């Protein structure tokens, strides 16, 4: 076990845990944002640099600070490590810079984007970004790529988090047709020469996409997500667990997605049959309203505050207290 | 003229063949190491020599070797980084094409020291002709019993492979190189774990530059202490400098570290001064990614001491008034050079070569290039100059691999030292956008 101090809160985690997961054990708004890291996907993380934190003391053995900010999602903890996230001015400034970088080539077409309302980039930019831009150049654009009858790839919105690539590789194990072509800012996600990912689990790439680059063709332009009501439901599916969220508008099921945890990570992968074909209430056993943790507009009227799992110690640094006061967590126990 | 340790026989007729190379004392270090030394003794000699990585970072090679994890029963690898693609650096190409056996000798001795039974030379894809030279030389070494099973009857086996890259600058970054060598897309890995623990095929791996490995035979033959006598302080031995730009005699020079920069530029033994009788304006001392310095700062440090060709002297003053020795790509620019255009050109390169994996580098390199393009072509604004500095700062230190820094440093340094020229590109936009326009000096701005 390793004991680390994250923004003044002590937490003990098993060796080899990443800093980000240690912070998630504490919970609340001091958890660094993550745009590319995805716990169920092996090899993900380290790319978006949204979760950069400052390591003020490397370990109990070697208490020197690390020279550069580190990506908390891929850096394992050491016993005695002291990490600064919201308590470090430097980290917050760098994060602003990361938002700016992610947005300069993003089309900002939220008004017509199906992801709006449940978009990680939207949340990230809203929480950490500035409202103006210094970018005057032309934005990079791509042609829409057709990757089959069910999934739309809109590369212009992509932030190259590679999550869908890992999903196609690890979950929807097929012919490895889905990958990254080109490099630099010309890099694009694609199925080489417009191939179709032919796999029962290919629809999961829609759920893992943090932005609106991969969307569900059966749901596109049907409804803004915040006008739909999420309901937990299950069915007896021979391929997957069958545990899903149905998104209702009136009596109609507009779309089906996997259930996600508070960090937007899928709990159980679902198959394409559940996702795209079972759109009648009669197909499902309804469990009750789904719980939306994240601060997206979907939960605008049934909002809950982030949960702080750890009992908060009295002598938190002032900046942590300020951060928590803005967004007071619910205390458990 | 200083001593030449690597390139002494470079002009001998037929030195690229095994017989001639052997006649000139080749492969002595292999015999000495395998027959009379233990692997640890070889590592100790390299440590004593103070040899520092010649690829750019200048990390002590012996120390790197001693960090290599050595779990029982797990193979280890030595990989030679011959993916030399930094603009301004062309020393390894020359070394490999003229003296292929020197690199192979170094690979055998180094592999023996590290206990590696399979080693790789990862060579830049564009250097296909060099690959053929190396493959021919390796075949000769196999035939002579210096490679393969039971080398010189010692029971030590080594297989050496040459592997060409696809021609991407990013594959010169050691973890991207390993990915590429494994047959994957050349994206740098997140560190930790470092290659010394989990490198090629997740096995402990050492990645060294061509020139570092080529220096090992000399160190083993002459002894680490003898090697350390050359040079000044922690900069020991000789270094290949590939000098290019507006010089009378551009080319590759093997210098003893500690040579004054002024002597290197102006002495007839070396570059022979600036061409066409012009004056020196600026120097990029270690390949395109290190900060550019104006004449007064490259010849003398901020404290007024003579600048020397050493790791320490060149980085004296940090990045405010100093630079780095880097890979030894020495680019000299005369007074007719437009610094903005030059910076734009460097930026264009890094924009093109960014792997696109992490966001600050992917987006930032393109942004820098576009702003510089605008300034150079007469569409810039005053606030663009500060924007450049700010964007460079947002990239620096926040990326997975050093390519981000390599893209940010030259831009930040150019603005730091040549701000008036950037401003002239805004105030005299039309004039500056003309082809071949030359900044006439600070006087016009007053």
Automatic annotation (TrEMBL), chain A:
Highest taxon listed in the record's lineage: Bacteria
Keyword 4Fe-4S found: yes
Any one of the GO CC terms: membrane
Cofactor(s) required, per the database record: [2Fe-2S] cluster; [4Fe-4S] cluster
One GO MF term: 4 iron, 4 sulfur cluster binding
Subcellular location: Membrane
Keywords recorded for this protein, A-Z: 2Fe-2S, 4Fe-4S, Iron, Iron-sulfur, Membrane, Metal-binding, NAD, Translocase
Domain 4Fe-4S His(Cys)3-ligated-type intervals: 90-129
Domain (2Fe-2S ferredoxin-type): residue spans on this chain: 2-89
InterPro entries attached to this UniProt entry: 2Fe-2S_ferredoxin-like_sf, 2Fe-2S_ferredoxin-type, NADH_UbQ_OxRdtase_ferredoxin, NADH_UbQ_OxRdtase_Gsu_4Fe4S-bd, Prok_molybdopt-oxidoreductase
Pfam families named in the record: Fer2_4 (PF13510), Fer4_Nqo3 (PF22117), NADH-G_4Fe-4S_3 (PF10588)
Gene3D superfamilies to which the protein is assigned, alphabetical: 3.10.20.740, 3.30.70.20
Family indicated by similarity: Belongs to the complex I 75 kDa subunit family.
Protein name according to UniProt: 2Fe-2S iron-sulfur cluster binding domain-containing protein
Species the sequence originates in: Hymenobacter wooponensis
UniProt lineage: Bacteria, Pseudomonadati, Bacteroidota, Cytophagia, Cytophagales
From TrEMBL, chain B:
Gene3D superfamilies: 3.10.20.600, 6.10.250.1450, NADH-ubiquinone oxidoreductase 51kDa subunit (3.40.50.11540), NADH-ubiquinone oxidoreductase 51kDa subunit, iron-sulphur binding domain (1.20.1440.230)
SUPFAM superfamilies in UniProt: Nqo1 FMN-binding domain-like, Nqo1 middle domain-like, Nqo1C-terminal domain-like
Coiled-coil boundaries: none
UniProt family annotation: Belongs to the complex I 51 kDa subunit family.
Organism from which the protein derives: Hymenobacter wooponensis
GO molecular function terms listed in the Swiss-Prot or TrEMBL record: 4 iron, 4 sulfur cluster binding; FMN binding; metal ion binding; NAD binding; NADH dehydrogenase (ubiquinone) activity; NADH dehydrogenase activity; quinone binding
Cofactor(s) named in the record: [4Fe-4S] cluster; FMN
InterPro entries recorded: ComplexI_51kDa_subunit, NADH-UbQ_OxRdtase_51kDa_CS, NADH-UbQ_OxRdtase_suF, Nuo51_FMN-bd, Nuo51_FMN-bd_sf, Nuop51_4Fe4S-bd, Nuop51_4Fe4S-bd_sf
Protein known as: NADH-quinone oxidoreductase subunit F
């Amino acid at each position: 076990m390793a004991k680390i101090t994250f923004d003044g809160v002590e937490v003990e985690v098993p060796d080899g845990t990443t800093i980000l997961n240690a912070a998630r054990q504490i919970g609340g708004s001091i958890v660094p944002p993550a745009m590319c890291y995805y716990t169920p996907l092996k090899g993900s993380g380290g790319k978006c640099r949204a979760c950069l934190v400052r390591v003020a003391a490397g370990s109990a053995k070697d208490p020197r600070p690390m020279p550069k900010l580190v990506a908390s999602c891929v850096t394992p903890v050491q016993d005695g490590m002291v990490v600064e996230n919201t308590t470090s001015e430097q980290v917050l400034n760098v994060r602003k810079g990361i938002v700016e970088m992610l947005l300069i080539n993003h089309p900002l077409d939220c008004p017509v984007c199906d992801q709006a309302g449940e978009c990680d980039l939207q949340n990230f930019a809203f929480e950490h970004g500035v409202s103006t831009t210094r970018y005057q150049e032309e934005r990079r654009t791509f042609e829409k790529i057709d990757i089959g009858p069910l999934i739309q790839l809109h590369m212009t919105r992509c932030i190259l988090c590679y999550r869908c690539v890992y999903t196609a590789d690890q979950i929807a194990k097929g012919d490895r047709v889905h990958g990254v072509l080109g490099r630099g800012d010309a890099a694009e996600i694609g199925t080489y020469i417009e191939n179709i990912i032919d796999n029962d689990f290919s629809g999961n790439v829609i759920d893992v996409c943090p932005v609106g680059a991969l969307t569900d063709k059966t749901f596109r332009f049907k409804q803004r997500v915040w006008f739909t009501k999420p309901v937990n439901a299950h069915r007896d599916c021979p391929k997957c667990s069958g545990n899903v969220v149905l998104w209702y508008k009136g009596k109609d099921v507009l779309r089906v997605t996997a259930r996600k945890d508070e960090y937007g990570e899928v709990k159980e992968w679902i198959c394409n049959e559940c996702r795209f074909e079972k759109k009648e209430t009669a197909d499902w056993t309804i469990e009750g309203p789904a719980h939306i943790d994240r601060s997206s507009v979907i939960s605008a009227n049934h909002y809950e505050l982030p949960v702080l799992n750890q009992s908060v110690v009295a002598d938190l640094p002032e900046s942590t207290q300020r951060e928590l006061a803005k967004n007071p967590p619910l205390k458990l126990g | 003229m200083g001593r030449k340790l690597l390139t002494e026989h470079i002009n001998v007729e037929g030195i690229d063949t095994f017989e001639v190379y052997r006649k000139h004392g080749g492969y002595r270090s292999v015999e000495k190491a395998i027959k009379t030394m233990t692997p640890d003794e070889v590592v100790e000699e390299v440590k004593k020599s103070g040899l520092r990585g010649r690829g750019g970072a200048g990390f002590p090679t012996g120390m790197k070797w001693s960090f290599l994890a050595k779990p029982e029963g797990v193979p280890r690898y030595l990989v030679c980084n011959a993916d030399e693609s930094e603009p301004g650096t062309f020393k390894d190409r020359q070394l490999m094409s003229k003296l292929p056996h020197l690199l192979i000798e170094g690979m055998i001795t180094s592999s023996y020291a590290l206990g590696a039974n399979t080693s790789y030379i990862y060579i830049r894809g564009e250097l296909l002709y060099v690959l053929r030279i190396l493959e021919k030389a390796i075949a000769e070494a196999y035939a002579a019993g210096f490679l393969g099973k039971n080398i010189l009857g010692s029971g030590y086996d080594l297989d050496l492979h040459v592997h060409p890259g696809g021609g991407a600058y990013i594959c010169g970054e050691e973890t991207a190189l390993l990915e590429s060598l494994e047959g994957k897309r050349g994206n740098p890995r997140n560190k930790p774990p470092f290659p010394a623990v989990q490198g090629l095929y997740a096995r402990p791996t050492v990645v060294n530059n061509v020139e570092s490995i080529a220096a090992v035979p000399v160190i083993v033959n002459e002894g680490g202490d003898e090697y350390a006598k050359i040079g000044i302080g922690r900069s020991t031995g000789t270094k290949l400098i590939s000098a290019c730009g507006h010089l009378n005699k551009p080319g590759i020079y093997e210098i003893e570290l500690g040579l004054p920069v002024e002597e290197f530029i102006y002495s007839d033994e070396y570059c022979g001064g600036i061409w066409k009788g012009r004056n020196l304006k600026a120097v990029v001392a270690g390949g395109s990614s290190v900060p550019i310095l104006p004449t007064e700062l490259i010849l003398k440090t901020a404290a007024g001491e003579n600048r020397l060709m050493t790791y320490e002297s060149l980085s004296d003053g940090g990045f405010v008034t100093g630079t780095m020795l880097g890979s030894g790509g020495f680019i000299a620019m005369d007074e007719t050079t437009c610094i903005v255009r030059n910076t734009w050109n460097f930026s264009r390169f890094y924009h093109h070569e960014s792997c696109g994996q992490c966001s600050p580098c992917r987006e930032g390199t393109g942004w820098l290039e576009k702003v510089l393009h605008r300034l150079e072509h007469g569409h810039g604004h005053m606030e663009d100059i500060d924007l450049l500095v700010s964007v460079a700062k947002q990239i620096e230190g926040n990326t997975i691999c050093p390519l981000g820094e390599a893209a940010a440093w030259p831009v930040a340094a150019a603005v730091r030292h040549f701000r008036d020229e950037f401003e002239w590109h805004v105030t005299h936009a039309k004039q500056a956008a003309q082809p071949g326009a030359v900044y006439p000096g600070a006087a016009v701005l007053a």
